[in-house]
Amino acid sequence: MTRREGSAFSGLGVVFLKEFADQLSGTRMRLLEALIVLTAMATIYAAIQTIKNVVGEDVFLFLRLFTTAKEPLPSFVAFAGFLVPLLAIALGFDAVNGEFQRRTLGRVLSQPIYRDALLFGKYLAGLATLALVLLAVWLLVTGLGILFTGLAPSGEEVARSLLYLAATLAYGGVWLAVALFFSVVFKSPTTSALAAIGVWLFFTVFWGMIAGLLAPVISPVHYGFPEEVLRQAQTELALARIAPSTLYAEATLALLQPEVRALGPVLPAQLEGMVLGTPLPLSQSVLLVWPQFAGLIAASVLFFTLAYVVFQRMEIRA
Amino acid sequence: MMAAIETKGLTKRYGRLVAVEDLDLVVERGEVFGILGPNGSGKTTTILMLLGLTEPSAGTVRVLGRDPVREPLKVKRRVGYLPDTVGFYDELSGRENLRYTAALNGMRGPAVEARIEELLGQMGLLDAADRPVRTYSRGMKQRLGLADVLLKEPELVILDEPTLGLDPQAAHEFLTLIRSLKERGLTVLLSSHLLHQVQAITDRVGLFRKGRMELVGSVPELAKRVLGGAYRIRVRAEGEGLEAALGAIPGVIRVRREPGGYLLETERDLRPDVARAVVREGGRLFALELEEPSLDEVYRAYFEEVKRDAA
Ligand SMILES: Nc1ncnc2c1ncn2[C@@H]1O[C@H](COP(=O)(O)OP(=O)(O)OP(=O)(O)O)[C@@H](O)[C@H]1O
Ligand SMILES: [Mg+2]
Fold this sequence. Notes:
Number of strands of chain B: 13
Shape of chain B: elongated
Largest interface: A-B, 28 and 37 residues
Bound molecules: adenosine-5'-triphosphate, magnesium ion
Distance between the termini of chain A: 30 Å
Order of helices and strands of chain A: HHHHHHHHHHHHH
Number of helices of chain A: 13
Oligomer: heterodimer
Strand content of chain A: under 5%
Strand order of the largest sheet of chain B: 5-6-7-3-8-9
Helix content of chain B: 25-40%
């Protein structure tokens, strides 16, 4: 028997492997997979019906698979934006309080590992699970696309869609961190699930409205000068960007629609010399969404840190 | 050498409630120490502070010479803890649960499998080893818990009510097993409500009441303090005026009438003097035995006394 000397992350790998295996073998996972695969198939099928007629006219046909909607179904992107947070919350809402309920926490934390190793291992396992599911869905979409349109995606399209996948993972990571945080704060998994879903609803549904109401208060338009109007629009956008869903929507837009040249209000001066409608090169699109990416990661770090701070001082009366 | 456990002025407050107050506890290496006391007297809270599972409000803790809050890994690598309600991952088998604990302790290699097998055998769990823990009975989980504690070959084991939910036979076996740990040189701290068994396996006990450890020592020492006399002699005898004669023997503290005889509290083993006194009074002597004071009596007498004092 050999013993490893303990670092701050002693046991992290052990926790990660166990949690990852648990996630993949759980019933919860089967349900979510089924849900995601069904929606992916339905939206892609609908999109294909719409874009079949424009084959040959559009250089980014493959990307249109993700963004095209056909009544009554929304696009794949819209569906993913809705389902991924729910999936992330489902993976994390009982991470810590579930162990409390099973009375395993006292036993595990009396082993030589730090509490952050346990928390981080659980977070990484959730993220890895999410990544695995997203990758599977991506393969499914790509496969269906090739099958039905008979066209292979270009290198740039593959790169763009994979970056979109990475953005989706970062977005899911935020909600995973939120769920983890609530699983530390609340002793009951039902409460933590509801709290996480509540926060998600708040940001996704109500925050835009609140930003719209707050912007005129913060940056009022007194005389109707264009600068005033612009400032108000900028304030509203800045407020809206507090919501992870806004950041994610912007990232998605710029990555999957190469013709998008700027995010937010655009001044005529900025458009000078540009040919409208020409797609942006990939590197430029990446630069465009870089702040959004950073914002999503910062939000995950924030919630993870909050969870850590609360967990660190918590009494473990299992 | 450092004591296994040493606390000074250890205190835990929950708002205005003082769960543990000013506790000075020393448990020597190789000792089996029992902590006793009514529900809510602060036993579990004390144990949690020893393990760094809750932060003390005041005071210091040293476990195997180290501070469990500052150096948690160094302490936890050498201390095994069985919580009062032990839980396992239900969907995993007993063996898999033990493997996880071993991995968390950084134990790897074929020797670990052999050790798990050996412990499962010792706990009589070999037949159930590969069944999910969901299918285990309460007592089986408890035994798996002890295997889990011993897996890392600890120097100190802390057991919170290890016999909770065990049938009398299983509880007895369990405690015999715990006693055998002492022979292997381990230090044991346990809390329990089974006074009879605790007496049989502990070297010293501490009596908790409302967050304070008010009495500490070996059972005969406590008996002397609580019951007065350390020795008790049960006399089965008949005859006139015996009670007065027995009371007059030097060294007898108290004489109590019992059906068929008397119970004497004495300072020493006075059996020969008692026999002589009975014969001298012309009484008929049937039996004479020296009785070890039981922890049960000490406990009951102590808490009755406290209640009387409070009233
Ligand atoms: N988280 C908490 N918040 C407030 N009070 C608490 C908390 N945990 C425990 N207490 C109180 O601390 C006191 C000591 O509790 P503790 O669990 O240490 O008792 P115990 O001696 O282990 O009892 P038992 O024999 O029932 O296990 C009790 O009065 C209890 O109500
Ligand atoms: Mg207790």
